[in-house]
């Protein structure tokens, strides 16, 4: 509770909505209450874009109850049938996970993640922060769609975090990063969207097949590593046109 002595400092902590294109994406959430709790965590920090991929139960009264006044975010939530659809127009996609699985990510922590998110969003690039299922997190195929992986440092004794707790921590860091007087780094071209990237990967696979290129990696995960390479590079739209042009030229010379 606030006392009268706190009145002078209160304006410093007033939270307004962020106008940056940052979305929270929840994958196949099992418990509707968690969706409501996430909406509450988002609204606390001024985030409004909630995207849901195949939630088990939604809409649901428990989600509204747990939202505690953030039910307007539930009303405006966007439903998707796949993660690809939920991130298709995003230039930057960051997955959250406690495990790296077989994909060799170099994980970043929430503070570094928030700075990256805010900088890219300020350049006009839609950004997605993706959270997996409560029980297993993001799958390998879902992680392969991410350009970065963020992990929350927790106690080795007890590292379990509820999805809403994880959203709250990262949203808080995003809020702090957005509040800082950071310079805006405008790019000449916006980042290529995830839909653009998927078309590029399909084009690249077609070219590799046409040249009889074989996967000589010991793990057999060539395209996963190729995806990691280009996702990490944050390819912009002009660079994407160059890459697609190169692939088209290779195909024409193969005829």
- Order of strands across the main sheet: 3-2-1-5-4-6
Write down the secondary-structure element order. HEHEHHEHEHEHEHHHH
What would you call the structural class?
alpha/beta
Helix fraction, binned, reads 40-55%
**CATH class annotation of the largest domain:** Alpha Beta
Which percent band covers the strand fraction?
A: 5-15%
In the CATH scheme, what's the topology name of the largest domain?
A: Alpha/beta knot
Provide a count of the helices: 11
How far apart the termini lie comes to 74 Å
Question: How would a textbook summarize the main sheet?
Answer: 6 strands, parallel
Poorly predicted sequence stretches spanning 5 or more consecutive residues: 1-15
How many structural domains can be distinguished in the coordinates? Answer: 2
Shape: globular
Rg, please? 20 Å
Tell me the total number of β-strands.
6
| CATH homologous superfamily identity of the largest domain | SPOUT methyltransferase, trefoil knot domain
CATH architecture of the largest domain: 3-Layer(aba) Sandwich
Mean pLDDT across the residues is 88
Please explain how this structure is put together.
- The protein folds into two domains: 165 residues, SPOUT methyltransferase, trefoil knot domain (Alpha/beta knot, 3-Layer(aba) Sandwich); 61 residues, Helicase, Ruva Protein, domain 3.
- 45% of the residues lie in helices and 11% in strands.
- The chain contains eleven helices and six strands.
- A six-stranded parallel beta sheet has the order 3-2-1-5-4-6.
- It is globular.
């Amino acid at each position: 509770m606030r006392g009268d002595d706190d009145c002078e400092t209160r304006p410093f902590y007033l939270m307004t909505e962020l106008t940056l294109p940052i979305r929270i994406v929840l994958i196949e959430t099992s418990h509707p209450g968690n969706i409501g709790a996430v909406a509450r965590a988002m609204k606390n920090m001024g985030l409004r874009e909630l995207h849901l991929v195949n939630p088990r139960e939604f809409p649901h009264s428990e989600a509204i109850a747990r939202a505690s006044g953030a039910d307007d975010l539930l009303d405006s939530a966007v439903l998707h049938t796949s993660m690809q659809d939920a991130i298709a127009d995003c230039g930057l996609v960051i997955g959250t996970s406690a495990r790296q699985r077989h994909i060799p990510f170099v994980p970043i922590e929430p503070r570094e993640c928030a700075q990256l998110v805010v900088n890219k969003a300020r350049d006009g690039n839609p950004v997605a922060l993706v959270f997996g299922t409560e029980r297993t997190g993001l799958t390998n195929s879902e992680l392969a769609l991410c350009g970065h992986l963020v992990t929350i440092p927790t106690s080795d004794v007890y590292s379990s975090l509820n999805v809403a707790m994880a959203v709250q921590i990262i949203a808080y860091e995003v809020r702090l990063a957005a509040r800082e007087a950071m310079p805006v780094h405008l790019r000449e071209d916006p980042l290529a969207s995830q839909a653009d990237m998927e078309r590029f990967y399909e084009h690249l696979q077609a070219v590799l097949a046409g040249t009889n290129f074989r996967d000589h990696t010991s793990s057999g995960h060539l395209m996963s590593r190729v995806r990691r390479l280009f996702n990490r590079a944050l390819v912009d739209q002009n660079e994407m046109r160059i890459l697609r042009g190169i692939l088209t030229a290779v195909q024409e010379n193969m005829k």
